[in-house]
Each structure stands twice: as structure tokens, then as C-alpha cells.
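idk why but the lab printer keeps eating my pages so im just putting this in chat instead. protein + protoporphyrin IX containing FE:
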Amino acid sequence: MAQSSASPKDFRLWPFVVIAAVVGIAAICFAYTAGWLSPNRLTPKKLVAGLAPPGGPALGHRRNHSKGICFTGTFEANGEGSALSKAPVFVRGQYPIVGRFNLGTPNPNAEDAMVRTRGLGILITTPDGQEWRSAMINAPIFPVSNPQAFYDLLTASASKDPNAMKNFIGANPGFLTFLPWAKSDQWTESYAEEPYNSLNSFLFVDESGTKHPVRWSLIPAAQPVSISPAELGKRGPDYLEQEITQRVAAGPQHWKLMVTVANPGDPTADPNKAWPADRRTIDVGTMTVQQIEPERDGPCRDINYDPTVLPAGITTSDDPFPAARSAAYSRSYNSRTAEEADYPRTATGAKQ
Ligand code: HEM
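predcted complex ->
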């Protein structure tokens, strides 16, 4: 009769073999996540490092859109969004917002007139505790089509190679469609006069489970007054923060939240491609900015405006940016909140 060759001692070793295998697989997963197995892969670490200026990041501050100012206000839903999304934030009613006006620069001390891109972060909370976080910019399209191209743009802009930008544009011709806006000297004189665009595409999910690809924009009630960067520069390096503080103290400022629905075939995975202007656009409510607060001690300081924090009824789409942004924002958030000593709150925590 054939005998099993395994002795009882061998069976006692099995648990250790299994444990070693589990630990080994976990180590490989960690190494992969850290990018050690594929040095060319784009990681959050590389993306965030790519944003840093030559002298290194401004410790304690956001690694991009570092200059900013907090506000509180409301979103008043008119109920029209509920046809597209079951998110409670679209049910007619008023919901609190904690937001932040900002400039697209890694330098918290940048002069306003040096920064073309202005941004807005908002966190809207509904009574059931769900949150909708969004970080938008005033540009009509994003300069590039995917996160790797964004990293390549950062690398080319920082390069000493005189051909770096030319080579980048050769590989990313969509960048040229961004230039007319970037180079225009028709800026506005106020954060209150800017539109803020999601640029990334998301899916609204309605009560029946049907998904609607959308982008959204906040459209200002204030009439834009155009100003050249040279003229803006004469008003002082921090004019935008001073102006919005005075303007909101004199009266609340309003924006309409407009949701644009894609037609079949519209590019949802590429924020460098605008959708045709005739797409269905729905006014879903009004954002009101009621109070400006300084960032240092304000309520937006420790918020990560991660665009993947969404209520049930809104999900990410095939757009590759939100996932890449989420990972990069988390890295930036973890760094800056661990560096509080480099950007201390005022001793009393009093409003400045
Ligand atoms: C892969 C592409 C991108 C990367 C790596 C990136 C990186 C970052 C980082 C590191 C921050 C600071 C986060 C924090 O510490 O809280 C930030 C903030 C911000 N980003 Fe991006 N970003 C990307 C794409 C975008 C896009 C497509 C938009 C707009 C459509 C955008 C708009 C903003 C805004 C408005 C803020 C400031 C939010 C706040 O006030 O906290 N970013 N970004």
C-alpha cells in the first residue's frame, strides 16, 4: 500500500508557510503601491513633488493652490437637480457650505497678478451627514488630457532644456487649445466675478439608477469687470483677498450652479476637450458666500477638497483625474497637517 510521504512535522509547518506567503504578497503590494517595482509609474509622491518650486514646498501649506482665503455660505437647491441625481443636496432646501477662494500656485505668498488660474473649493453638507466636495477653476478647459500629461507639463515647465516645452507640446497638442485663455490679459478684478468649472466629468445617478454624465460650473451673479494683470499688480500683491473681504462684508455674493449634461459620445475622460456649447444645461440652485474668514485660523484650513468625496447620487466617471487628484490631495493634506509648526495658527485662534 502506498504511504503518504508527509510527516506530522511537515503539517505543523504549513501555518508558517501560509503566513510567510501572506506577508510576502502584502510586501509586494506595498512595494508596488510605493512605485518601487515600476520606477516609471506615476505615483502621488511624484505628482506632488512635481508641483514643488525649486526651493521646495511651502511647509504647512497646500502643495498647490496654496494662497487662499476661507468663506462660509449656503447652497440653496431649487429642486431641478433631482431629475438627474438622487443626491439629497439637490432636494429643494438650503445647505451649509465651507469654501475657499484660491490661486493656482504652490507659493502662498505669490502676487495676485502673477497667477492666471483662480480656484474655488466647496464642501456642502446635507442634514443626513453626506458631503459633496468639489475643487474647481476659472479656466474653461484643463491644459492637458490625463494625469501623466499633467506631470509631464510640470516637468517640462521646470526643465532647463530649451526644447522641453516644445517637445511637451509635440506630444500633447491639446495644450495649444488652452493657451488663448492662459495668455489672454482680460482677467477679472475679483474672485466674485469668476466662473468656477469642475472640468472633470462625473456621473449623476437618478432614482431609477440611470447614469447621466455631467460637468458643472458656478456662474457669478456679479458682472465681470476686466482688468489686465499689469493693472491688477498696481492694486497690491494681496488685492483679491482684500477685495473679496470688503465686497462680502458689504453684501452676500451669489453664483448659479449650472449642470451640463453630455450627449452620447461627448468626451468624458478628457477635461482638455470642451463639450459643444449647445449641450443641455440645468440651473440647480444658488451658492451664496456670506462670510469671509482668513485661512490661517479659518474653517477651510484643514479641509481636503478631494473631488472624490461625493454623496450617493454622484459618482466618478471614466475621467482619470479625480482618482489621481484624490491620491495627490491626500498626500498634500497629510504633509501640511503634520507641519503645523511651520504655519502656526495665531496664539488665540482669534479671527484676523
Ligand atoms: C493630476 C492633476 C492634479 C494634481 C496632481 C493636483 C494637485 C493638487 C494639490 C496637491 C492640491 C492641494 C490639496 C490640499 O492640500 O488640500 C490641489 C488643490 C486644488 N486643485 Fe488640484 N490637482 C490636479 C488637478 C486639478 C484640476 C483638474 C482642478 C480643477 C478642475 C484642480 C483644482 C484645484 C483647486 C481649486 C485646489 C484648491 C482646493 C482647496 O482650496 O483646498 N486641480 N491640487
